[in-house]
Write a structure and sequence with these properties.
Blueprint (H helix, E strand, L loop, with lengths): L4 E5 L7 H11 L4 E4 L5 H7 L4 E4 L16 H6 L4 E4 L2 H7 L3 H13 L3 E6 L3 H5 L3 H12 L13 E6 L13 H18 L7 E7 L7 H5 L6 E4 L6 H8 L2
Helix pairs in contact: 1-10, 5-7, 7-8
The protein binds 2-phosphoglycolic acid.
């Protein structure tokens, strides 16, 4: 059962290039997309043979006076195929808005990168019964510049549902809730644009996925894969998740 896609989000880890190369060598399996931090992209890309290369973010402009930013074209040139956009850590720590995320998604697909759009609610929002409202807004605005999917190079989209309270906490959501969210997300996508029906969309779960609990999510046909943070830094663990 290896038609699932697993995204390894290394975040700002490890600290050195040597460690990054080692980790890439040990994690190099089919079905995995490795997303190292920007300085390690090129060498990790050269190291992996079976896994694919992803980035953790990009900037929406193609070039210009944007200190510290990295464009879709620059990533593409390094062999990057996927890009995480709108991760909750960027939304929360850097004030990334749905409008900024929409521009990032547009620039990714125009360059032929497959965007991994992260959506999900906080604990307070979940407790207040606002999960669907939040996710609906994140999808609607995040994909709002994609009215003309037919004009773009990438016809693929990945949506990762990551409840914020489940990220890095050791407490994942339940597979049942994730299945309900996957259905909800699919139903929302068709509202975004008529062209959306031509777009291949995979829906992933993220938030405290480990080698122990991955099977509960990945054995379900409604869930197309997982976005893994902490556990992706341990090669044995990530291999257990990918090769089940
Ligand atoms: P986690 O991170 O697996 O460590 O919970 C997931 C994420 O941030 O995408």
């Amino acid at each position: 059962m290896n038609n699932k896609i697993i995204i390894a989000n290394w975040k700002m880890n490890p600290a050195t290039l040597e460690e990054a190369i080692q980790l890439a060598k040990e994690s190099d399996v089919e079905g995995l997309v490795i997303c190292p931090s920007f300085p390690f992209l090129e060498e990790v890309g050269k190291t992996i043979k079976k896994a694919k290369l992803g980035a953790q973010d990009l900037f929406w402009a193609p070039r210009g006076a944007y200190t510290g930013e990295v464009s879709a074209k620059e990533l593409k040139n390094l062999g990057v195929e996927y890009v995480i956009i709108g991760h909750s850590e960027r939304r929360q720590n850097l004030g990334e808005t749905d409008e900024m995320i929409a521009k990032k998604i547009k620039s990714a697909v125009e360059e032929g990168l497959i965007p991994i759009l992260c959506v999900g609610e906080t604990r307070e929002e979940r407790d207040a019964g606002k999960t669907q409202e939040v996710v609906e807004r994140e999808l609607k605005i995040g994909l709002s510049l994609m009215g003309q999917w037919s004009n773009v190079k990438s016809q693929k989209l990945i949506v990762a549902y990551e409840p914020i309270w489940a990220i890095g906490t050791g407490t994942p959501d339940t597979p049942e809730n994730m299945i309900a969210m996957a259905k909800f997300i699919r139903s929302q996508l068709s509202n975004v644009s008529r062209q959306m029906s031509d777009v291949k969309c995979q829906i992933l779960y993220g938030g405290s996925v480990t080698g122990q609990n991955a099977e509960q999510f990945l054995s379900r046909e409604e869930i197309d894969g997982a976005l893994v943070g902490g556990a992706s830094l341990k090669p044995e663990e990530i291999k257990n998740i990918v090769i089940r």
